[in-house]
Amino acid sequence: MPKVRKVVLNRVEGEIQLKLVWEKGKVKDAFIIAPNFRGFEFILEGKPALDALVINPRICGICGHAHLIATTKAIENLYENAGLKIDIPQNARLIRDITLGAEIIQNHLRWFYMFVMPDFLKLEKSKKLKDFEPIKGYKWQKAVDFSSRIVKVIAIFGGQWPHTSYSVPGGVVCDPTTFDLTEAKSIVDSVVGFAQQEIFGMDIEDYLSVSSEEEYLKKSKNSDLKKFIFMCKKHQLDHAGKSYHRFLTVCDMEYAFSKGITKKKRRNFYVEKVREIDSYSYLTENGFSFDKNRYSWAKAVRYDGLPYETSPLSRRINSREKLFINLLKHYRDSYMVRMWARIDEIARLLYAMKMWIESIKPSEPFYIPPPADIKEISGKGVGLCEAARGSLIHQLTAEKGIIKKYNIITPSTWNLGPRCEKYLSPAEKAIKGADSQIKAEMILRSFDVCSVCTTH
Prior knowledge:
The protein is α+β, with helices and mostly antiparallel strands. The chain has a single domain, classed as Cytochrome-c3 Hydrogenase, chain B, CATH 1.10.645. 43% of the residues lie in helices and 18% in strands. The chain is built from 17 helices and 15 strands. It has helices at residues 40-44, 52-55, 64-81, 90-123, 138-150, 152-158, 178-200, 204-208, 213-219, 224-234, 312-318, 322-331, 335-359, 411-416, 426-431, 437-445, 451-454, and strands spanning 3-12, 14-23, 26-33, 167-168, 171-172, 247-249, 260-263, 265-267, 274-277, 283-284, 287-288, 300-303, 379-387, 390-399, 402-409. The strands form six sheets. A three-stranded antiparallel sheet has the order 1-2-3. The chain has a three-stranded antiparallel sheet with strand order 6-7-8, covered by helices on one side. The protein is globular, with a radius of gyration of 21 Å. The mean pLDDT is 94. Belongs to the [NiFe]/[NiFeSe] hydrogenase large subunit family. Its main location: other.
């Protein structure tokens, strides 16, 4: 007879409950439970639209900047749908990408060294891994240091991190000097040095030219990514944790990734095809429901009726990166490949940030005022952004500048939401078949769990 176990995962951003149904030593079914309700969408109702620029970065302490960018884009789209063209200076676009890239990198560094590598300490008691021990380990400490350094780039342009609100409709409110740009570039260079020496074991540009697992393992010196790959193979995590093999990315970022959806073939993304389903959520269209079938405060998200994974792996696949196309052929969307893609993105974003910083022209504008006061604007707007964990969508309805309805679809809702009548969520499907409790938890963490975004 199947056995049911429920555990609370605290080593995530927030808190998630994992309910597992076991049969013959393997997970037969999995329920990912987001137990806390926060209500930001309701808080925003009745507020002036520009207030969202201050409120929304508080949704998450790790990816709040992505919420700011999505909010800004939603308000700019509100103007555009009202027939008013918003001019955004190239300098502002560059700085938004630089700061968003910095936030994503800090997340990936902390996620890999503070959450992922310590999991392997539970699988094997090896002295070779002592440097990854939480708090005490040399590599753990060093990663914390460099993840803190990279967010100083956000503070240079945005004035603070977290909860930055410097991005506004029409651009950004900073006016960086040559010294600011030099300082930002110096910080990026220092993190590049750390990534080359510790993570990849080779120059970043050399790494970005790698097209296969064999090539990387041959060229890389002793590196943390290489250790990770070997440990995945040792514990059969190179083939575990497979989900639907469908990938979604909602926007482009020059030098970094391309938007699209991949289901066998890559196609264009259309926001109109996104739907939220509340069949198993406590939160419904009409308020709240606590009947016995419902088990999470998150909703299920579907694109054209199907569940899609959104993540750095999705960004790699929709960008048609040869390395990950080849990895998928051998391992599909497994734990190891999903994790590798997130680590890979550190290199790609560091390289991109250097290009973006060098492209800024201080003598040109950073902000152009919108053509009308927000109090004159009514209609709908959509803001699309790629956050650390995947695709983020903000949907806004306003009347004379006042928010009437605000809807947020986070990456964690895509990946960790509940099931619908036909499908499990991507993470629930990936966990099925796991042969131990720790592996089930590790597979869940491969989606970079954020409870506070899931239950925004």
